What we know:
Blueprint: E1 2-6, H1 10-21, E2 25-30, H2 37-40, E3 44-45, E4 48-49, E5 54-55, H3 59-77, E6 82-84, E7 87-91, H4 94-104, E8 113-115, H5 122-125, E9 131-135, E10 139-141, H6 143-156, E11 160-162, E12 179-180, E13 183-184, E14 187-190, E15 210-219, E16 227-230, E17 232-236, E18 242-245, H7 259-272, E19 277-287, E20 296-299, E21 306-310, H8 316-333
Parallel strand pairs: 1-2, 1-14, 2-11, 7-16, 14-21
Antiparallel strand pairs: 3-10, 4-5, 6-10, 7-9, 8-9, 12-13, 15-18, 15-19, 16-17, 17-18, 20-21
Helix pairs in contact: 1-8, 3-8
The protein binds flavin-adenine dinucleotide.
Residues 6-12, 29-32, 34, 36-38, 40-44, 143, 164-165, 191-193, 195, 212, 214, 245-246, 285, 287-288, 310, 312-318 line the site of flavin-adenine dinucleotide.
Amino acid sequence: MDYLIVGQGLAGTLIGYRLERAGHAVTYVDAPEQTAASAVAAGIVNPITGRRFVKSWRIDDLLPEARQFYRELESYLDRPLWYDLPLVRTLFNRGDENDWLARGGDPAYAGYLIDRPQLGRIPQLTRPAHAYGGVGHSARVDICTLVEAFRSRKRSEGAYFDAAFDYDELLFDGRSRPEWGGRSYDQVIFCEGWRARYNPWFGDLPHGGTKGEVLIVRTEEPPLDRLFKHRVFLVPQPDGTYWVGATSSNRFPDDRPTAANRSYLEERLREVLTVPFAVVDHQAAVRPTVRDRRPMLGAHPDQPALIIFNGLGTKGASLAPLMSKWLLGHLENGEELPAEVSIRRFT
Ligand SMILES: Cc1cc2nc3c(=O)[nH]c(=O)nc-3n(C[C@H](O)[C@H](O)[C@H](O)COP(=O)(O)OP(=O)(O)OC[C@H]3O[C@@H](n4cnc5c(N)ncnc54)[C@H](O)[C@@H]3O)c2cc1C
């Protein structure tokens, strides 16, 4: 089969790789001068989230697939992508601590909640907190490197086009094969992230869109060797900087960084760090969220040649490997998509 993938962020990359590995021909188109969530994300894999310390949706299924699939992509792209990193989060008060301990007693959470975690250099670099909890099975995926390395490989293979895809240029009457750029395809997979709201075939789905801003900062001290969450996330990067973030806003006039959120993040960071820091970058992008907080996969109800892979939301790093596997099974073998992620749930 011949596939055209519109949008080569994390979603487009993973489904494209799976299709190629299954023997299909894939062409990619993206306009990388636009902001993309995948270019800004820290790629944190955090199985325990929220104030009530609950396990993320389907995390027991997502984690093994993610680890194995990113390891495979490491070999394919010949660079590290998956980092097993302990995650330490602060517990603000006794109430938090009690909730944490109670949750940790639940057998379904065995291995996920760690009391009295190793703190590494956290006490040397940050203000003391009431208590700390450790999250097991945490990791970081270098999504940005993955997407960039994959893009340059596809570019060198002549399978990637640098262009803003204009929907009017897709020649498609619903009967013949869709055609774009003088070539026809069996199916087109739309992976445009939050911009899918402008897609004429899939724009009516309940797309959300949550803007996030982050800082990249440097300190003079040797960096932490673990993920740390205290008001903001501090994510040590291989180049010695930290990713610090992120803000979250469902209403936004544009996808650019703002002075107000830069100040907000700097203030939070000053509340956490005891050492001076310098901001070396400030970035923003929009997460492709969905109102019911589940991914959106599947073919257009009337046009089976048009497919969507979207809605990775705030947890693309852990979701995308299994979601792309489900989508491949659906495309290749007609396997039913789970109702929770199929776009049929909206029709
Ligand atoms: C600040 C921030 C922090 C985050 N942190 C984390 C985290 O720690 N862990 C985690 O798991 N997730 C995180 N996420 C979420 C994660 O980034 C997303 O879930 C994931 O990257 C979404 O991938 P995507 O491919 O669907 O969308 P995107 O990465 O946005 O990719 C969409 C692509 O489509 C292209 N495109 C769109 N329209 C067109 C068009 N018409 N023509 C050509 N190209 C087009 C865009 O250029 C873009 O490259 C974060 C997101 C943000 C914004």
